Amino acid sequence: MIPDIVPIDTYMKILTVPQSQIRIMFRSCPKKLPGKLILAHYVWAFLSSCQESGPACNESAPWKLTKGEETVKELLSGNEAIARGAYEYGVRLASAYPGTPSTEILEYIGERYPEIVAGWAPNEKVAVEVAAGASYGGSRALAAMKHVGLNVAADPFMTLSYTGVNGGFVIVVCDDPAMHSSQNEQDTRNYAKFGKVPCLEPSDSQEAKDFIGESLRISEDFDTPVIFRSSTRISHSMSLVELGERKEGPRELGLKKDAVKYVMLPAMARRKHPIVEERLRNLATFAETFPFNRVIMGDDSIGVITSGVAFQYAREAMPNASFLKLGMVWPLPEKMVRDFASRVKRLIVIEELDPFLEEAIRLMGIKVEGKNLTGLCGELSPEQVEIILTGKSSAKSIGGIDLELPMRPPNMCPGCPHRATFTALKKNKVYVAGDIGCYTLGALPPLGMLDNCLCMGAGIGISSGLARSLGESAKGKAVAVIGDSTFFHSGMTPLLELAYNGGHATVVIVDNRITAMTGAQHHPGTGFTLREEPTIAVDMEKLCASFGLRRVRTVNPYKIRELEKVVKEELEAPEPSVIISRAPCALLKSGRILPDKPLRIKQDVCTGCKTCINTGCPALEFVKIDVPEPGKKRKGYSRINAALCVGCGTCFEVCKFDAIEEAS
Ligand SMILES: Cc1ncc(C[n+]2csc(CCOP(=O)(O)OP(=O)(O)O)c2C)c(N)n1
Ligand code: SF4
Ligand code: SF4
Question: Which of 113, 156, 238, 305 is the most exposed place for a label (fewest CB within 10 A)?
Fold first, then answer.
């Protein structure tokens, strides 16, 4: 029996594994559609075992509705629908850097739509610039990223608002309220206001597809980049989408010179600013008749202004209330808002994160409620919205699932090379400026190795600042740990700073040959493109040496004693140094070096010292001894779970008592 609503946290508890190991896909059962749409969330694994395919379902793929041979509607996740929209609405180039919950957009484009030129960019700034180039040349273009990605891309974004576009240009930004996989929960709508560009926000997968088309059209009609804001629930939930044919964009392709438009020298930019302000006024007028800003009048005792997934929650909770459902959340249709407000007795804004709509409406002098009811932090839920609007919840939640689940804090995989690196680093009393990737899990016990983690690429700069400002007192201690993808994303410039200004920090690049945390995407160091075509593989050693660094060493992290020695030597060096700790991610099929032969612990030799346990490998267990053993002080002994062990040898390397051997 599949329950109606399963909160994500419940699944997170059941499937407590790093996000990279399992893709949790939220799908709604086609039998429920149309109706509650995405409110019934199912883990894909549950749906696959669903035997209840209705007559309209295609049996081999129950999420597709077919007419004869032709698929006319398909159950798509928001990210699949965005990719489909890029295809149908003539996008010629798409560029992205992975980041949950946006990653799959470019993956789907890469897999399904060869008509679109697509590739991973080293970071989001570059993705926006590459897409800007395509747009300037007349192509319809898309750049995709997670919310924090727009911080990285903010520089080109802000001035793109001034240059405008040629071919339609949509920047898809996926927010992560509740921080399922993020370091903060910023609200991208603020960037639209800040950059003075329009922002569209879909409420389901059909709108996700349609709004890509609308964004591109608005972009061309108003000469502006457009922000398309998604969120985890829209990107990863599924609902039916009507499919269409691909149509190419309207602009002539080519290299057309127009310096006044595209060269933002102060003199040109000064002329552009008033144009940008006028554009915003024109967009606000357009918003009044934009068909996806719509009023649904019902009972006038409560009027709800809302957008995105919050609309689904509010509609589900109070189907008979009155709604102003906004498809374009910036700029706002002021007349429409005023008119709607005048027709209802109580006006409530239901929105996730910031009081973005609420404040704008209050500035119009309209009395409105919002964040006093919904709060500022985290994501909304159908139950919460129902309670806010009706004072009760009728959701059949299995939130209080009656299962005794073991505590399983997030952990690196068995055999993860990062664990070996941290185990070696631990020997030296270092202060580690961390970064973002699977290795961030090294912050948790028993490793407890990260002392800070700010944003992608920050660790090297922080270690440099610490080393230079503290001088002698930080000598031999200031370390930065950064992953390979993060290094190419935003680690190269701080390394250049360290090389340029000097200081005794040691940078450890944990090079597992992939962007593991977001699900194994290629990057400029892997030798392959998005579509698995062979390409250059950056030589990290030569790259670091080209910055003028004299101390660049490469080690295999599984050789823990050797790595310990190298770390010690580099920490003692009176100049900046780089250690490249290189071994492929344990989950990678290609380039895998792990023997996959489990080790075992000689029970009688194990002293129960827990040194191996302290590596944090999930394959290691400690068996307590209740009755004291004659002549032995130990309180228990370690054991290896052969089903999990991949034979990486990390525990073997740290055991001082030769208690670990290959299992026969
Ligand atoms: C600005 C920004 N973009 C994207 C992300 C999502 N993200 C987090 S870590 C990471 C890269 C991880 O790869 P790597 O540094 O190679 O470490 P690994 O996970 O492979 O250990 C990405 C893409 C983010 N947190 N911030
Ligand atoms: S880097 Fe480590 S934790 Fe991440 S997927 Fe690979 S083996 Fe697992
Ligand atoms: S060899 Fe040891 S550290 Fe490596 S996976 Fe097996 S139990 Fe874990």
Answer: 113
Q: Does this chain's domain 73-288 share its CATH topology with 599-662?
A: no
Contacts (Cβ under 8 Å, ≥6 apart) of 460: 433, 480, 482, 491, 494, 495, 497, 498, 505, 507
Helix axes 124-136, 154-163, angle to 10 degrees: 20
Q: Is 646 in the pocket of ligand 3 (CB under 6 A)?
A: yes
Reduce the secondary structure of 250-287 to three states and give it as a string: CCCCCCCCCHHHHCCCHHHHHHHHHHHHHHHHHHHHHH
**29-43, 302-316, 544-558: segment of lowest average pLDDT:** 29-43
Identity (one letter) of the amino acid at 143? A
**DSSP E strands: which ranges in 18-168?**
26-27, 42-43, 64-67, 70-77, 91-96, 117-120, 140-146
CATH number of 73-288: 3.40.50.970
SS3 63: coil
pLDDT per residue as tens digits for the range 77-133: 999 999 999 999 999 999 999 999 999 999 999 999 999 999 999 999 999 999 999
Which residue has the CA at smallest separation from atom 9 of ligand 1? 437
> How do 346-350 and 328-330 pair as beta strands?
unpaired
CATH, range 599-662: 3.30.70
Position 408 scores a pLDDT of 73
Q: In DSSP terms, which residues pair with 430 in a beta bridge?
A: none
Closest ligand 2 atom number to CA of residue 411 = 3
pLDDT at 64 over 90: no
Ligand 1, pocket-test mutation among 172, 182, 517, most atoms within 8 A of CB: 517
Average the pLDDT over 425-432 and give the result: 93
The model's pTM is: 0.90
Q: Which two tokens stand for residue 514?
A: 């992939």
- Report CA(18)–ligand 1 centroid distance (Å): 13
**Options 3.30.70.260, 3.40.462.10, 3.40.720.10, 3.40.50.920; which CATH number does 294-390 get?**
3.40.50.920
Q: Domain residue spans in the chain?
A: 1-68, 73-288, 294-390, 417-582, 599-662
Rounded Cα gap, residues 307 and 229, in angstroms: 11
Among 22, 411, 412, 482, name the best residue to mutate to test ligand 2's pocket (greatest count of ligand atoms within 8 A of Cβ). Answer: 412
Does residue 198 have a cis bond before it (omega within 30 degrees)? no
* 3-state DSSP assignment of residue 173: strand
- How far apart are the C-alpha atoms of 227 and 235, rounded to whole Å? 15
* 42 touches 6 (CB < 8 A): yes
Angle between helices 78-88 and 104-112 in degrees, nearest 10:
50
Please, what is the average pLDDT of the chain? Answer: 90
Q: What is the pLDDT of residues 403-426, one digit of tens each?
A: 666 677 789 999 999 999 999 999
Residue 60 pLDDT exceeds 60: no
* Ligand 1 pocket: which of 97, 157, 486 to mutate (most atoms within 8 A of CB): 486
How much distance in Å is there from the Cα of 255 to the middle of ligand 1?
Answer: 35
